[in-house]
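A reminder before we start the practical. When you read a complex entry, don't treat the lines as separate problems. The point of joint prediction is that each chain is placed relative to the others, so the output describes one connected object in space. Small molecules and nucleic acid strands, if listed, are placed in the same frame. In the example below there are two entries. Take a minute to note the order of the lines before looking further.
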Amino acid sequence: MNITIIGLGLIGGSMALDLRANGFAARLIGVDANPRHRQLAQDMELVDEVMELGPACRQADIVLLAVPVNAIVSLATAVLDNMGADTVAIEVGSTKAEIAQAIAGHPRRAQFVLAHPMAGTEYSGPKAAISNLFQHKAAIICDPGDSSPQAVRLAERLFKSLFMRVIYMESSAHDVHAAYVSHISHISSYVLALTVLEKEKVEANIFNMASGGFASTVRLAKSSPRMWNDIYEQNAQNILDVLDIYIEKIQEFRDLIARGEFDETYRLMESANAIGKILKAPQFNSTKV
Amino acid sequence: MNITIIGLGLIGGSMALDLRANGFAARLIGVDANPRHRQLAQDMELVDEVMELGPACRQADIVLLAVPVNAIVSLATAVLDNMGADTVAIEVGSTKAEIAQAIAGHPRRAQFVLAHPMAGTEYSGPKAAISNLFQHKAAIICDPGDSSPQAVRLAERLFKSLFMRVIYMESSAHDVHAAYVSHISHISSYVLALTVLEKEKVEANIFNMASGGFASTVRLAKSSPRMWNDIYEQNAQNILDVLDIYIEKIQEFRDLIARGEFDETYRLMESANAIGKILKAPQFNSTKV
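Here is the predicted structure of the whole assembly.
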């Protein structure tokens, strides 16, 4: 199968590695606006060749859109316009509603699949590409009824070839849930980093004592600002809803400490411990993020 | 060397495993207020025998105090009163100023060492004990001038036998820094868990899509409420100072998203990325927390 990957970063590059290794892709064509990333992807042999978007779409059986979500919105129509009548486009961004809207009226809408492979690391660019990033993770296919059965089946085959679990969701539900289980984690991690870095300006030694617990909560603060800005923009309302709840709860926690109401902080922490049963699910038994 | 460990949980139990394996301890005596933990520690052969605090201190060359920090404050005097004139007590709690104050006037103050091995996991109790938890991590010795040179040297030998880096700090500085690099991480993680769990009540499926990034930021929410409550109580003022900065920054981040000021969120995330250089330090090159 000829697979064109638009966006040769962490996700696109990691897909290229696995789809070549498992034989799903016979030929990999890369598209990237960044000349340095194009060169790197060729030097690393992530793809067989790089092309402009038009010819790359025309030669593809599958087009994977793995760019930041605002770029997916900008490029989706051009991809559909350029690709063949049997080609399937699959976007793998972290938001869905605006992307769905951008292609809603397109005559080739049925050839387009909205999907979110729930895998990643805090790194970006072609050099961030790693093998087996996706295995045992969830691949969410959104609004499957708006794609043709053939297109959905092809997307399923692709994700299953990466050992992913395929689940289905409405775009709007996806965006709410993603705000809770992914977007808020990144914001709390960025803010934690900012808080500690500000202190570190005057206390050069502070990190000498930082341990793995800190590293774990702050790790996502290394993530790409470009990618995350697009997500905030497209999912602003859901993210604001979650942030408001989060801020309310941390303010409550703060006030309980200030008032010395430790029976209450105990009760809250005991409730929070329930997250343990959820983290026992198989998708968390991996050191990848 | 005879080593008495008071508190047979994650830290005490993990120290028992390594100090036996590396030959530092010839005999390990356990003390724990919880009968189930006493039994478990014996069944798991973490210690050679369990005793009451008095006789356990009298027979020890080193007494390790590895209980929650309020219990360290309560027990420190009894430990000093019961132990021999050549015995050294080392407490390994996560706060320092109140513990230092509790023993300040004791005639055997010089035989007591305040220390904080910066290692742990989100688990607790004897079953949480694991080998090699401490290696390549920092062991902070506080107020070394208030302990005898012999006592400090013995504590250093013990920590170095666990392959730890020993660093020195004033108690008050320790408590400020610990609030930044450890205590705030735990609170943000507890609050993240509470936020998401509340949503999950009405959206049973939400965790189906949670990925490793979420798992990483929320992992510390599994930590022991008892242990953390004591820390909040003893380090309340420093924790409140950090929480106030954190809340101010997350509110700012929220407002920038609400106003669509994405140049500003970009700038903040780019600043936060600087945490990456810190996380490259050798103590983070471990999967343990």
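Discuss with your neighbour: The first strand of chain B starts at residue 2 and ends at 6. What might explain this?
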